[in-house]
């Protein structure tokens, strides 16, 4: 990103946070950035496109940091969860103007931006959910979205104190503290065995805010996680994961083969045996996607 574009984004965030999106003009933004209107329109066709760029820039940074953390073989599941919380803290606390925009509701005054925010919130919740299952094991899976939701909610409340009360937040300490509280929460769930609240409540939202490709990727992740956490035989689990990978690869071809996909799918269902939840995930992912006219 070049200097002028960065200056425009930073200036817009400051003004959107101090005032709001609607009362801030393009002229206000270029005046603060110290560039011409021509320079603005070289980078952004409209103020709305600038707003999109701000959110995309922020979320791309989040995704990049999380991918780097996931690829680090030295991080334990606990370390990875703490790192994910810390990423959220650092990017928000380092950019108070972006947080001001969120608090003022800038994200939700424009429908398209609102949809982006909702999708990103769901993706973050799913990321936390996956880490929670990896850390605490399959017995907490039914409650994993409730845990992820409470974790994410607590994080947002600390951001509230940071922006409205100017309370200093140490991201590293907060990340460790929240995971310790998550330990307490999971211990309570295991002891009392309550009925989960969000066990399947987010599935309809996934269907609204994800493209078909994103839905398949999300379902594939859930299937992989289910296989790894519930298949006791290592060799069978490896075979199932390879079969799943082959099905997805075939589906992504320009002319996928229905015969190959159907055969692999049936084989995967056979290996799933009595795991009803895994079988349901497989049917949701592939029943409607198997092509009927392919060679």
From TrEMBL:
Keywords: DNA-binding. The keyword DNA-binding applies. One of its GO terms (molecular function) is DNA binding. It comes from the Bacteria. The keyword Lipid metabolism does not apply. InterPro entries: Homeodomain-like_sf, HTH-type_Tx_Regulator, HTH_TetR. Residues 2-62 form the HTH tetR-type domain. Residues 25-44 bind DNA. PANTHER family: ACREF/ENVCD OPERON REPRESSOR-RELATED (PTHR43479), TRANSCRIPTIONAL REGULATOR, TETR FAMILY (PTHR43479:SF22). This is TetR/AcrR family transcriptional regulator. It comes from Paenibacillus xerothermodurans. The lineage of its organism: Bacteria, Bacillati, Bacillota, Bacilli, Bacillales.
